[in-house]
Amino acid sequence: MEQSFEEFNKNSISLEVPDPKKTNTLSNYIRLEMTYPKGIDGVSILNGFVEYAINVERQQIAADLTVIVKNRLAEIEGKLNAARSSYEMDKEARIAKLAEKDVLRRAQLQDELKALRAQLKAVRSDRLALLDESINIAKSLGIQKPSTLSSLGDKSGNRSSSIIRTEINNQQVPLYFMGVEALEAERRTLLQRKSDDFTGARIAQIAKDLQLLQSNREIELLNNRKNEDLFLSNVAPLRGEQARLRSLNLDMAQLKLVVIDKLALEPIKPIKPKKVLILLSGLILGGVLGVLIALARSILLIRRNAAVDRAAHSQHAVIAESAKSER
Question: Predicted confidence band at 92 (pLDDT cuts at 50, 70, 90)?
Fold first, then answer.
């Protein structure tokens, strides 16, 4: 079929293109002509051939455009996937940093809490030691109830008690003036205490901070994101281009590739055979052939006559020679 079409294309279809050196038009054009024998619908063949060529080119353009659009969509999807991967890595790194920060803060608070408790315990131990010492002093002075320096001076009968009172009141009152009963009551209470946490305001604040660190709301929000594509950065142009490419109409049925100035028409008269040309050619060829035949006949006759004359002359010469010899 390909060979037959090639022969038909070579012998029957002629293509005329404008000479680029002579034409001044800005648009290219071509002219197709087809020679076909009588009895064949050459007009339909040529018009169908042109329409087929246009459809094939239109399909090729549509296929090329489809491939280009698909390749661009695949490239955009690859960039979006890269952005998603980068976002996932950034999110995981952020969650890890937040979790690590919480762990560090929790450990610092627990260390601080432990140190504060040890400090409060040491303060309580020091207070107990101070109470024991003050109780011994109060017992030795016979102070059972809370007392003052003036009352202690009155009991001792010291007349310069006012002078003593003035000098001591400018200093901190010793603890043993609380009396044995008050000091022993405080000591018993301190010995019965099971925890010193309530005595430090910072411990309550640490407990509050530890309670808040049990759950990180920012990590929960990051893990509970539903549509994470909304949080991708610098992808708005890619999404816009993706939407435009997907909305493209790739149907090339209405694409106007060429302008057909005039479809093929049935010729007014056949181009072959040309009867006048054939008749004139026959007359000319017949005349030439007749002249050639006449010339050939004349040449043959001349050669024949020449041969006869030579034969007669030879015969006369032989007779003459024989007559001479008889004499």
Answer: very high
Tokens for 266, please give them: 């049935």
134 CB burial (10 A radius; 0-12, 13-18, 19+): buried
DSSP secondary structure of 155-185? HHT-TTHHHHHHHHHTSPPPGGGG-HHHHHH
Token pair belonging to 198: 């309530």
Helix (H, G, I), strand (E, B) or coil at 249: coil
At 161 the pLDDT is: 41
Radius of gyration over every alpha carbon of the chain, rounded to an integer in angstroms = 65
pLDDT in tens, 175-218: 888 888 888 898 899 889 888 888 888 888 999 999 988 888 99
The whole-angstrom separation of Cα 1 and Cα 96 is: 71
Answering whether pTM is above 0.70, one says no
Confidence of residue 158 (pLDDT cuts 50, 70, 90): very low
Tokens encoding 177: 């003036």
What is the Cα–Cα distance from 134 to 183, expressed in whole angstroms?
7
- If one counts every other C-beta atom within 10 angstroms of the C-beta of residue 143, the result is 23
Q: What is the distance in angstroms between the CA of the first residue and the CA of the last residue of the chain?
A: 94
Q: What 3-state DSSP class applies to 15?
A: strand
> Cα separation of 322 and 59, whole Å?
105
Q: In sequence order, what are the residues at sequence separation of 6 or more whose Cβ sits closer than 8 angstroms to the Cβ of residue 87?
A: 228, 231, 232, 233
d(C-alpha 56, C-alpha 184), whole Å: 113
* Number of Cβ atoms within 10 Å of the Cβ of 181: 14
Position 160 scores a pLDDT of 44
Whether 87 contacts 231, CB under 8 Å: yes
- Higher pLDDT: 31 or 323? It is 31
